[in-house]
Every structure is written in C-alpha cells, then in structure tokens.
Prior knowledge:
Order of helices and strands: EEEEEEEEEEEHHHHHHHH
Number of strands: 11
Helix content: 40-55%
Strand order of the largest sheet: 2-1-11-10-7-8
Shape: elongated
Radius of gyration: 31 Å
Largest sheet: 6 strands, antiparallel
Structural class: alpha+beta
Oligomer: single chain
Amino acid sequence: MSSARLKVISGKQKGTVWSLAEGRFTLGRDAGCEFVLDDDGASRRHAEILVSGARIAIRDLQSTNHTYVNQRRIDQAQLVDGDVVGIGSTRVEVRTRPESPAQRPKPGSARSARAGRRASSGVATRPGRTVRRIVMIACIGIVGLGILFMVVGREDRGPQRPIAESGTRALSRQQREQPPQVAATTLEELPGNLREAYEQGRTHFQYGNLARARSSFERVVAEYPGFREGTRSLGRVNDLIDERLDRAFARARSALVAGRYEELRSAIDTIDFLAKPDDPRRREAEALAAELPQR
Length: 295
C-alpha cells in the first residue's frame, strides 16, 4: 500500500514522514530499526508495524514505557487513517489516503478562453445593469426559500441525533474533539507523592540500585508521560540495565563453557534480579540454569 505513511506530529522529529510498504517495520532508539526515534522515552526496539495489503497493525515489543494508540495503552491493535500512536513523548499519525497536489488554474487561462469565445460569437463581455439586478434578485429569492424550507423541515422532524460511529474511527474522533489535558512537564508541577517517588528513584540511581530506580521512575512516567525529565531518567536506567544484562549473559555463557558453576549461578542471579517477569531474557536465564549440575 504505497500511499500509507507515518507522520510525526509532536516530539523532536516533528514533521518527519515515513512511507510504509508491504512488510514489517520496527520503531525504536536502536540504529538498526527501520524507523529510528530520537526519544529518551522509547525503548531500543519499542514497537513493530505490520503492513499487509490494506491492513496495518502495530504490536508492542515489551517496551518499558508501553505503546499507546489514541491515548490508550495497547499490546497490539489495528490502525486506520487518523489514528495517533504514542511512544514516549513522540506522537505519530497514521495516514492512508493518497495526497494529491491542489489543482491550480493558470492565471488568465480560463478568462482569456471565455473572452475569446465571446469575441468570436459577438456577445458583449459585460452584461447590462438591468440583467445583473434581475439575476441578483432571483438569487436572493432562491436563498430565502431554501432557508425557509430548512427551518420548516427541522421543526417537523424534531431534534436530530448524529449517527453513531463505531470502532477505532469513533474513538479517535472523540479523543480529537476532547480538549487537550494539561499534564505536568516539570518536577514542581508533579503531585507531592510522585515528586517524592522521583526523588527516591534518583537516590536509588546514585547508589547503583537500578531495579528500584526503574520502579520509581516507571511509576512517575506512567501517570505523567509528558514529564520529560522522568522519561530521560527512565531511559538512562534502562540503558544501564541492558548493559548489565548483556555483561551478565556473556559471563554466564563463559562460565558454563569453563565449568565455573558458582560464577554461573551468580550471573543467573543478576539476570533474574534485573530482568522483568515478561522479559524474554529471563527465559534465557532459566535455560542456562538448567545446565547447572544438581546438588
């Protein structure tokens, strides 16, 4: 579907347009993604878009800050024209209708053609005042009758209710018509309990307790995704956790090959502590643990 595309409508990359063809496309901070996001609130591989014929679907790739469609958190969803995908502080609008350039008539072309036809037929190019008055009066009369019929018809039918829309289109239309919500964007604007949670997260981060720091930052960002300082802090914590998990996996594999089982247990404990329950790396750690000899 060559006319399908994504347009960034808010965030650092506002105005960027990505074309969608048949296939799968990954969105995230990683340079290997098809659509790279310059957003600290996005995961390395945040979400995946599947395009098949006229259908467009999106799937969250177990991201830290989750994926939203029309301000609703989703695991996967079908997308239609006008839907807005939220990732971190970036908003991306789905557009499936082809854009055609406005047809602009060349200056003077129609006018000169009409003038030529009138000159060849011998018709005067400017009507008399009497004719113009008659035409004006007739137009006013027609408009007045139309307004009268509309008023009478509306009174006969009674109050009209708009036809209900269904599905994602209705949801997106309703949310676009709602007034924008005012969200906290600075630390001073946060409620007291969330301000305290954010400060606790910073303390945990300073002392190297990344799991607790992540939990505190996630709590703040979940309620106020527009708080950019929170999304940046959460992004830094997630990057450090990813690095520690990568090192722990490398250490675990090396220890397994060398038969250093105590070191293997230590690496597995680190992975088990840092990886979330739904993180696929936890399953990989369980597979490594199965290689440990039974005591």
